[in-house]
Amino acid sequence: MRSSARRGPYVCGIDAAMDVVSGKWKSLILWELANHGSRRFGELRRGLPGVSEKMLIQHLREMEEDGLLHREVYREVPPRVEYSLTEDGTTLNEALRPLGAWGTRRRERLGGE
Predict the structure, then answer these.
(1) CA–CA distance from 3 to each of 6, 7, 62, 67 (Å)?
(2) Which residues contact 43 (CB under 8 A, 6 or more apart)?
(3) Mean pLDDT throughout 67-79?
């Protein structure tokens, strides 16, 4: 269990949700897995330009602990690990869709920045 986990008590639903999606890369990891299905670590890293290996590992572990991701380890040589969304991860991604639409409209208002 991660030592920095708040796990409540929460003031409201937004507080509880933000506790799970806090961090720059978590929403992008959700998006990547929703759009491409199961991904290996290297595929995720290539799909998220700018993320460091350390940060990606940290976020994947936290998201797995929060029940958003499933980590499947294949006992092969060399070992293979794939990440996919759980039902909670899928529903969270759907909940973030309106926020993404809002962000798209904001980018357009700001001139596509």
Answers:
(1) 9, 11, 11, 16
(2) 36
(3) 93
| Beta bridge partner(s), residue 74 | 80
Shortest CA distance to 27 belongs to which of 89, 113, 87? 89
The band of 2, judged by pLDDT with boundaries at 50, 70 and 90, is very low
User: What radius of gyration do the chain's Cα atoms show?
Assistant: 15
| 68-77: average pLDDT | 94
Which CA distances in Å does 102 have to 14, 55, 105?
A: 17, 26, 5
CA contacts within 13 A on the Cβ side of 62: 22
8 backbone dihedrals φ, ψ, rounded to 5°: 85, 175
* pLDDT for position 3: 46
Question: Mean per-residue pLDDT for 10-38?
Answer: 91
**pLDDT at residue 14, rounded to an integer:** 87
**Coil, strand or helix at 95:** helix
